[in-house]
Design a protein that fits this description.
InterPro entries: Methyltranfer_dom, SAM-dependent_MTases_sf. This protein is α/β, with parallel strands linked by helices. It has two domains: 3-109, no CATH class; 115-385, Rossmann fold, CATH 3.40.50.150. Helices cover 38% and strands 25% of the residues. It has twelve helices and 14 strands. It has helices at 6-22, 66-77, 110-113, 136-141, 156-176, 193-205, 219-232, 265-275, 301-304, 307-328, 360-373, 378-385; strands spanning 27-36, 39-48, 52-57, 60-64, 82-89, 92-98, 103-109, 182-187, 210-216, 237-241, 255-259, 280-284, 331-337, 348-354. A seven-stranded antiparallel β-sheet has the order 4-3-2-1-5-6-7. Strand 2 (39-48) and strand 3 (52-57) form a beta hairpin. Helix 1 (6-22) runs antiparallel to helix 2, helix 5 crosses helix 6 and helix 10 (307-328) runs antiparallel to helix 11. It is elongated.
């Protein structure tokens, strides 16, 4: 290749290096094909856990830093007529071509490239955010799609719920991700299916730099989540088997999510989010037991003598007081019907965005309700007890 084009090639590859250093967790591989006459010589590099790249070329494999690898590629280019380099990361390929005449660079958005494969419009009259085609690997890993790329009939409802969840919090993601990377903590993560989908959407669709931490008391589900993350190459995810109260973050948490955590496990997650002053808290509560065994209200005694009424009001009081406590701690709260009540009565999503330090009026209302109802909610207890 003409030596006069080396400065331009070096400049372009410096941009590739900066891209890697800015967010190496989404790097997939780098390949380069040199051409000499009719012969082609290809090298391929993949990520190594030591933050290096294992590069195989001409039957030999070496470990390189990104800087050393790209410099080697530039040096080698002098021995060939042309080169084609593809830098692959989640959701995007960058194509660099160089020969005696010119050096060019082009981004290839994989979501757009595969958009013609979308086959989901017949499942529900909606424009999916997690689309069949671009998201095939994700959908297969979490059990939504078969190996031959068909959505499983018994998973259509689950697929719709996952996609709708992301749709509901999309504007919140925009609010907290402006001009920065974000860290999301999933409390009681279970198998983390929604979190994997959220990771895909943020990284490969919205192109937001993000990190995920999943915690759950069960070793089995944590190991399963680790396995799925490894199979997908999602290196921006960490999972820990531990109690929520024992988690100590090493950086700012921007969003805390708690999805279908049973009874007071939701309160544990909410209290942690409040204590960490998370920018946003998203909770989809599950069963409610605590309030039912505590509360009483004399004016309603002739109504609450019926167990079904007392149980339903306990659900409303539980999530209503949770929302009020979030408001008391400076959050703007929006309760949303997550899915149809025909599918499950536990269909509430609580979305909270940090707007202020505290709200004394809301706290006064909360304390009055505690007295009037003769209750001592777990959320209040956790906020007083755990540091």
């Amino acid at each position: 290749m003409n030596k006069k084009n080396l400065p331009k090639l070096t400049l372009i590859l410096t941009g590739i290096k900066n891209r890697f250093l800015e967010n190496e967790t989404i790097f997939k591989e780098i390949s380069v094909t040199y051409t000499s006459g009719l012969k082609h010589f290809t090298g391929k590099g993949i990520y190594n856990d030591d933050h290096k790249i294992s590069f195989n070329f001409n039957g030999k494999t070496d470990l390189f830093t990104i800087d050393d690898l790209l410099q080697t590629i530039v040096n080698n280019s002098l021995s060939y007529d042309s080169l084609e380099l593809i830098y692959s990361e989640r959701g995007t390929n960058v194509l660099v071509t160089a020969d005696d005449k010119n050096v060019n660079i082009k981004n290839i958005n994989m979501t757009e490239k595969n958009s013609n494969k979308e086959k989901t419009s017949t499942l529900l009259n909606r424009n999916y955010l997690i689309k069949v085609g671009p998201a095939d690997n994700l959908l297969k890993a979490i059990g939504i799609m078969t190996k031959d790329k068909k959505i499983k009939n018994d998973k259509i409802r689950k697929y719709n719920q996952i996609d709708h969840f992301i749709e509901l919090i999309d504007s919140t993601l925009d609010t907290i991700s402006r001009n920065k990377s974000i860290t999301i903590l999933d409390c009681g993560c279970g198998k983390s299916y929604l979190t994997f989908a959220l990771n895909y959407y943020l990284t490969e669709v919205k192109r937001v730099k993000c990190r995920f931490v999943g915690i759950d008391i069960s070793n089995a589900v944590i190991e399963k989540s680790k396995s799925i993350a490894a199979s997908l190459g999602y290196r921006n995810m960490e999972f820990y088997a531990m109690d929520i109260h024992d988690y100590k973050p090493d950086e700012k948490i921007n969003m805390v999510i708690s999805l279908h955590a049973c009874d007071t496990a939701t309160d544990m997650a909410l209290s942690l989010g409040i204590k960490l002053e998370s920018d946003a808290i998203i909770a989809v509560p599950c069963c409610h037991k605590e309030m039912l065994s505590q509360y009483s209200y004399e004016p309603f005694k002739d109504i609450l003598k019926h167990g079904i009424f007392k149980a339903r009001l306990a659900d409303v009081l539980t999530d209503g007081m949770r929302s009020l406590m979030l408001e008391a701690n400076g959050y703007e709260v929006t309760p949303i019907e997550y899915i149809s009540p025909l599918e499950t009565p536990k269909n509430l999503l609580i979305r909270a965005i940090k707007k202020a330090d505290t709200n004394e009026k809301a706290m006064d209302s909360y304390m009055k309700l505690m007295a009037d109802l003769n209750v001592y909610p777990a959320l209040y207890d956790f906020l007083q007890t755990y540091n």
